[in-house]
Amino acid sequence: MNAYVGTPTSRVDGRAKVTGAAKYAGEFAADRLLHGFVVAATIPRGRIARLDTSEALRVEGVVDVLTHAHRPPLADKDEAWKDEVAPEKGSPFRPLYDDRINFNGQPIALVVAEDWETAKFAATRVRVEYDQEAFATDLESERGKAARVDQPHKPRGDAAAALTRAAVQHEADYVMPSEHHNPMELYATTAVWDGNGKLTVYDKTQGVQNVQKFLCSVFGRKRDDIRVVSPYVGGAFGSGLRPQYQVVLATLAAVALKRSVRVVLTRRQMYGLGYRPMTIEHVALGASPDGTLDAVTHEAIAVTSRFEDFSRNDTGWADQLYKSPNSRFSHKLVELDVSTPCDMRAPGAATGVCALECAMDELAVALKLDPIELRLKCYSERDQSEDLPYTSKQLRQCYARGAEAFGWDRRTPAPRSMHDGKDLVGWGMATGVWEALQMPVAVRIVLTANGHAEVSCAASDIGTGTYTIVAQVAADALGLPIENISVRLADSTLPQAPVEGGSWMAASSAHAVLGAAEDIRQELARLAKALPGSQLADLDATKVTLVDGMIASNDPNGAAVSIADVMRHSKLERIEKEKLNQFAEDKSHARNTHSAVFAEVKVDEQLGVIRVTRVVSAVAAGRILNTKTGRSQIMGGVVWGIGMALHEETMMDHRFGRIMNADIAEYHVPVNADIHDIDVIFVDEPDDRINRLGVKGLGEIGIVGVPAAIANAVYHATGKRVRRFPITLDKLLD
Amino acid sequence: MADLTDQIPERIPINLVVNGARRTLEVAPWTTLLDALRDRLELTGTKKGCDHGQCGACTVLIDGRRVNSCLTLAVMKDGAEITTIEGLARDGMLHPLQQAFIDHDAFQCGYCTPGQICSAAGLLAEGRARDADEIRELMSGNLCRCGAYPNIVAAIEQAMSRS
């Protein structure tokens, strides 16, 4: 039954990706394709006083220059611009809508030409004058204007009073910078003009149906007019959850010119999209001398734009991890003249849990307790916010297995006490936590008499392995070799799926596959029973298995007949079933994934250079559908955590309200030489309550806790506590 | 000024040997080898990730050496032999590096992968990398945002040991 689920199956799309055959959004060919190049605003706030496109239009090969004053109609109501991931409050950004400038890097014109180089050149000939207005882009100087938007969890007890009387207190600000996703693929759309007003839009997105509905509402089109396709996505990490402006511009130009248009953003222009918002995390912990917590407060103050309130849960996580009778959490926003932030890998948790776990380390130091011991003393068996038990929580096992693999018992607690030659060595650890969500997803399976099955769904695979796990689950459920399964994803005409994000797609798509396969099985059983002289005439149709191309009774002595024979005798070439997944409504349990992360750093104190030489991440995330791709997801999360801890920071020049390091040379991401040993351990976590397969999802949990483990290791190595991320060498040399 | 800006440069004929096949095309002097491959020759396996030589996604082999094709003007390479990711497999058989990348799951989204593999092929030909540390160092011009680095190193080690 489980020939594939739970095994290290290689990616089914691997061959396409290693041969260059996999096509990404900006690579689809079209007849008489035009190329658009974006002109972006160079002020953060004001109005376009004059926009002169005449010089650009004179360049040979330029077809048109679209601007707010020269474009086809766009929807004029906010509701039309709200995609399924849009913040509740606010007015979504509308590219080329009017003369308002709301952020630096905002698109103000699209030059469309016969080739890309010409469009790019002509874009330098668009002349703009602005009426600039006063602006603010600095979270720290505007901190006083923070307004509360959210109280992630209800307060419990009286945290303020408990903090005051706590024997041991720790209170600090942890400053997390803005970060940009920087997927390797540039944001791109190829809008193919099919004629008669119909468009096929190849877009870089995490949700084709989200983009499809958005385009239909923005352009006032019928559902059948626009099809959105995105078979391969060159990374997104949250940046592709909402439709990005290039898809509007490419579609706008195609509609205006009745021709196919491709728009590819430059790396620099991608810094005008969403980002992880800079957040000041204020954490206060109060404890008894024995290490039991009395009070936790966590207040986050984060950036948002002036036109939309973006916020995620940074602060509630202590309620899930650490037992404390008193707690209080709040999330505040400061509106600045910037683009709207968006989800980025483990939004909220990556930053908030980093602050919490650094604070826990500081508390452990103050209490003279081992950091794991402190966490075990406060270990919460229940989600305290709703006072619920967990469907499963093997975090204790994560601590134990991770510590053992890392060799934590050989750690000497005093800072600066471990060395490797002239390098200081530091060992740090932290906890990770994320949600185990599941969403409505439908899957269609077409089984053909030759023993092949096509499984299709609108879900995206952004590198997460959806193609592969869908094929694995289908192969097992249909009793076919995985080579006989073909998977089609990310086409808006396929069965429904939400955006791929939040770590929900594995569980959601797998159960939709199971449901559709079950319908196929029942249909086959019904047909098998009905055949004249059937060996399976007495069969209970609910008690059969599909295995090795046969329909077999679950009774070990029962009969089995070939699926191909049943279909042939029934004169059926294909059986098609579509099914929406169904999860039992169960609010009686909390659903989370957990991890324990251990990091070793080596610090050259003279140069301040920090290397992360080892990371052990022990993860409890239910059943792992594919141990190979699953390990890769966690490993990728660890690499992201190393980037968060040591490298990544979007730097704004507040005098101009402009990002200074808007490329991937000056915005540092980890390179191969930055990454050393990463050991991923999946802790056994059976969970028969969360869903049939016991799957929880892996996309986010890998990053959570990693930056804190590294920061804590840097403290252990050097005795310096850096609370302003990333921990760059200048902060150690101070 | 204005009357100068409406001129775009003349196209120049060049010959390239791409994946063993001779290709003749006319390109403007400002066209990079990367754009010539992707837009003119429809070899989209070579990727554009930054267009500034910062990410390595556009790595191809020119006369056997790994080069960022985004920093190379096509007209500079008249007569050169170019191997892209599409030219590595022979007769349907994957190049040992391609197979090793699949075996070790050395990619997720796959966008940096052609550049990684071409760069690794160049690295093997250079014969400079002797161990994992040297592979890491000499592969650091190829960014992988999915963070597959340890698997990339393992894949290259596998291909090295078998070559």
Automatic annotation (TrEMBL), chain A:
Residues 19-134 form the Aldehyde oxidase/xanthine dehydrogenase a/b hammerhead domain. SUPFAM superfamilies: CO dehydrogenase molybdoprotein N-domain-like, Molybdenum cofactor-binding domain. It comes from the Bacteria. InterPro entries: Ald_Oxase/Xan_DH_a/b, Ald_Oxase/Xan_DH_a/b_sf, Ald_Oxase/xanthine_DH-like, AldOxase/xan_DH_MoCoBD1, AldOxase/xan_DH_MoCoBD2, AldOxase/xan_DH_Mopterin-bd_sf. Transmembrane segments: none annotated. GO terms for molecular function: iron ion binding; oxidoreductase activity. This is Aldehyde oxidase.
UniProtKB/TrEMBL annotation, chain B:
Gene3D superfamilies: 3.10.20.30, [2Fe-2S]-binding domain (1.10.150.120). Keywords: 2Fe-2S, Iron, Iron-sulfur, Metal-binding, Oxidoreductase. InterPro entries: 2Fe-2S-bd, 2Fe-2S-bd_dom_sf, 2Fe-2S_ferredoxin-like_sf, 2Fe-2S_ferredoxin-type, 2Fe2S_fd_BS, Aldehyde_Oxdr_Iron-Sulfur, Beta-grasp_dom_sf. PROSITE patterns: 2FE2S_FER_1, 2FE2S_FER_2. The keyword Metal-binding applies. CDD domains: fer2. Residues 12-88 form the 2Fe-2S ferredoxin-type domain. GO terms for molecular function: 2 iron, 2 sulfur cluster binding; metal ion binding; oxidoreductase activity, acting on the aldehyde or oxo group of donors. It comes from the Bacteria. PANTHER family: OXIDOREDUCTASE WITH IRON-SULFUR SUBUNIT, OXIDOREDUCTASE, IRON-SULPHUR BINDING SUBUNIT-RELATED-RELATED. This is (2Fe-2S)-binding protein. It comes from Bradyrhizobium forestalis.
